Amino acid sequence: MSMNSQGRPSAPNENAVSYTPKTFTGNRALDMEEPLIFEFGHFDTTGVDFDMPEAFETELGGFEREDALELPGLAEPEAMRHYVRLSRNNYAIDSGLYPLGSCTMKHNPRLNEKMARLPGFGDIHPLQPLSTVPGAIELIDQLAHWLMTMTGTSAVAMSPKAGAHGELCGMMAIKAAHTAAGRDPKIVLVPESAHGTNPATAALLGYKVVNIDARDDDGTVDLDALKRTIAEHEGNVAAIMLTNPNTCGLFERDIVEIAAAIHKADAYFYCDGANFNAIVGKARPGDLGVDAMHINLHKTFSTPHGGGGPGSGPVILSDRLAPFAPLPFIRKDGENGPVLVEAEAQLTDGEKPFGRMTAFHGQMGMYVRALSYMMSHGSDGLKQASEDAVLNANYVRVGLQDLMSLPFGERPCMHEVLFDDSFLKDTGVTTLDFAKAMIDEGYHPMTMYFPLVVHGAMLIEPTESESRASLDLFVATLRDLVMSAKDGQTDRFSGAPYFSPRRRLDETKAARKPILTWEKPAPAQAAE
């Protein structure tokens, strides 16, 4: 045992028995065991004083509540502590590298947040008269201009509020275009590496989804298979829904020929824009033959991502689809500047909106953040962000390719790198085990088991936000985990995570037999 100059122990006794004590509170030092707010709140008290309202006549027509809401009342410090403690259990991009593939979990500059909270933006209301929000309309118009400039297209629908919402918008515009031309094709082609929302969106609109195979050697769309499928369903193909760069982290090298084959069949090319962060400033989707593509502002342009929102999914449209952009949209009106078109009575010749996606014009806070990001980066900065995203993904690929397995060889990737689980063969460690062990090392796991084109997929996207030092530590950590697995240290993986607030859960049982009601636990008893 080491002693300091005062003779007090400065290191643990090597002969001491190691154990994990059980605390009375359930807390483990700064690792707090936070109960539900209903478990410690008091239903008969509140931390806020409300004046009794004056007498009034209700307008609820007999639908008034007869019982109290039974919301727990907390003192202000209790409420603050509760939510701070909960936040400590969250993993976020502000905590560490977030390697989720196909999600683009990039840094959100605080400048964007400051701009979104400016008076006139932060307190804007969708029911305000249009005469009071000309600046907001001009901002939306300016953002739309830059989105069209970056994508090489002539129109953009700004109102969709997320990527999947944008997919629906683009496909509804395609359906409206076919209807206007007197056609009713029933087939939508979807490559097997597509995001799951792609076939779901097509099916929601009544289309039959036909799968397009990927090449075994590189994970890109098999052009010959595509042409054969188009010929097989001649005259009945409405569109293709394709991601580029695709979900294997690879650029579809036949993209121009794919677009030509689709257009020759009188169909439309829908591109999933989730991976736009890899090509901003490098390639314009419109130049590649894309007719419609949603852009996740909350991925590519750094606005907050995840947790169910907020999000925004503007959809860029080609000349052929521009007339069918949904209401509301912004139109230039000469010297009067941008004008918000909200009703059919405002339409001019050639404008044929398929309808309305949402009550109001999208997510204002997301618009401000995205435009702030664009203006602070400039065209050269946006291009560099894409280049750095690709550079970082390839840095991870090269750092791990001798220990982890690459399903499509050691060819360069785009913004994300795809590994499979063949390097874990005969180790007794599964893909899930490996991912859970990453949690103990302080990392959120990468995207697992997706895309489905490879077994045991592990998809890593570091984004351009990470420094070389951050990537070096991440690569070193994964190398250590791989070597532990190959050395037979299965205990490190089979019970992981060991150090998280919750251990490994039975996710299948939780999904099939969820416990949907809370029962108050027995009060803890002090030791006698």
Question: Key terms for this structure?
Answer:
alpha/beta; 2 domains; globular; glycine binding; Aspartate Aminotransferase, domain 2; pyridoxal phosphate; 7-stranded mixed β-sheet; Aminotrans_V_dom; Aspartate Aminotransferase, domain 1; 14 helices; oxidoreductase; glycine dehydrogenase (decarboxylating) activity; 528 residues
Structure description:
This is glycine dehydrogenase (aminomethyl-transferring). Its EC number is 1.4.4.2. The chain has 2 domains: 114-371, Type I PLP-dependent aspartate aminotransferase-like (Major domain) (Aspartate Aminotransferase, domain 2); 380-512, Aspartate Aminotransferase, domain 1 (Alpha-Beta Complex), CATH 3.90.1150.10. It is 32% helix and 9% strand. The chain has helices spanning 37-40, 76-88, 110-116, 134-151, 163-180, 197-204, 223-232, 255-264, 297-300, 364-400, 431-440, 468-486, 491-494, 507-512; strands spanning 155-157, 187-191, 208-212, 237-243, 268-272, 292-294, 315-317, 329-332, 338-341, 417-419, 447-448, 458-460.
Under CATH, the homologous superfamily of the largest domain reads Type I PLP-dependent aspartate aminotransferase-like (Major domain)
Helix/strand order:
HHHHEHEHEHEHEEHEEEHEHEEHHH
Kindly report the CATH topology of the largest domain: Aspartate Aminotransferase, domain 2
How far apart are the first and last residues' alpha carbons, in Å? 34 Å
Uncertain runs are none
Mean pLDDT across residues: 89
What CATH first level of the largest domain would be assigned?
A: Alpha Beta
Count of discrete domains: 2
Helical run tally:
14
Helix content: 25-40%
Shape: globular
Sheet having the most strands: 7 strands, mixed
